[in-house]
Write a structure and sequence with these properties.
Helix content is 48%, strand content 8%. It contains ten helices and six strands; from the N terminus they run H-H-H-E-E-H-E-H-E-E-H-E-H-H-H-H. A hairpin with a 2-residue loop joins strand 4 and strand 5. It has a domain of 87 residues: 2-Layer Sandwich (Alpha-Beta Plaits).
Length: 286
């Protein structure tokens, strides 16, 4: 799947260490993905109007304040191992009954819940194991930053009856999650062997598309605790993605240097902000 002009612009700008990127660099990079220069310019205009990006005095672009909560969540894949804590058996719940069922607010709410690994246990009640670092307070703050309405109660649940506990644990397709870990790990290892032999432009495209796919997988991972999903396969995938990220950075370094673009991260096709309807395609959703 090729990136959209909108997601491509956001992903490239998210790699900046400081400063901004000229239009000509964005257009030149987009050509390798079959994205027309006019599409890049239209995307820039729309993202600028929406506050997702900003333009400096030289006409260069950088991410805007409106994209910061999403950027912060996306780059959290690098610290995935630090986001969890041992699970004591409690659950975290969010009540959404009485909130709008359709429209942009509902879409932002669904996105926030999916990003934090919550699934619907009952109509109007989403849950996840309470194993994220910082507990209820930290999850509540992140949910609000990502789009959950402040009116939605976020709380801890304990002592579920055995039948409800079993239903809660079955909300995630553990087999699919584990199969995805193994498949992505193999894909990264194959690509890591191939990238050094590819032409520069082809290496940029492959590192962008594959790295982005695996980053989406990691960002959308529900981070289930050890009793539900063995952590070893996820940890192996995360380690491989860190190695692949260094390779991807090398693939893009010369191109970004040619346009005097300071960069910190490998450009990657994350595309996770393009709509909540895509989120069900990842993260082991039943």
């Amino acid at each position: 799947m090729r990136p959209t002009a909108r997601s491509f612009v956001l992903d490239l700008l998210s790699t900046l260490k400081r400063g901004a990127m000229p239009v000509r660099a964005l257009v030149a990079a987009g050509e390798g993905f079959g994205i027309a220069g006019n599409s890049i310019r239209v995307a820039l205009a729309r993202l600028l109007a929406a506050g997702r990006i900003e333009r400096d005095e030289r006409g260069r672009y950088r991410l805007g304040a409106g994209a910061e909560p999403m950027r912060r969540h996306v780059v959290s894949w690098r610290r995935l191992a630090e986001r969890t804590r041992p699970w004591a058996g409690a659950w975290l719940g969010v009540v959404t009954s009485g909130l709008p069922a359709r429209g942009s607010r509902a879409a932002r709410r669904e996105r926030a819940l999916r990003f934090l690994g919550l699934r619907s246990l009952e109509p109007g009640l989403a849950v996840r194991p309470d194993n994220l670092r910082g507990g209820v307070a930290a999850v509540r703050a992140e949910l609000h930053a990502l789009g959950l309405e402040p009116a939605a109660p976020v709380f801890e649940l304990r002592s579920l009856d055995p039948a409800t506990e079993a239903r809660a644990r079955a909300l995630w397709d553990v087999r699919a999650l584990r199969a995805a870990y193994r498949r992505s790990l193999a894909d990264l290892e194959r690509s890591a062997r191939r990238l050094p032999r590819l032409p520069e432009a082809a290496a940029r495209v492959e590192s962008f598309l594959l790295g982005g796919r695996v980053i989406r997988e990691l960002v959308l991972d529900p981070l289930l605790p050890e009793p539900i999903v063995p952590a070893g396969e996820r940890e192996a995938l995360l380690e491989a993605m860190h190695r692949f990220d260094r390779l991807g950075r090398a693939c893009w370094s010369a191109f970004l240097d040619r346009y005097d673009v300071p960069h910190l991260r490998t450009p990657a096709d994350t595309r996770i902000a393009d709509g909540a309807e895509r989120l069900a395609l990842a993260g082991g959703v039943r």
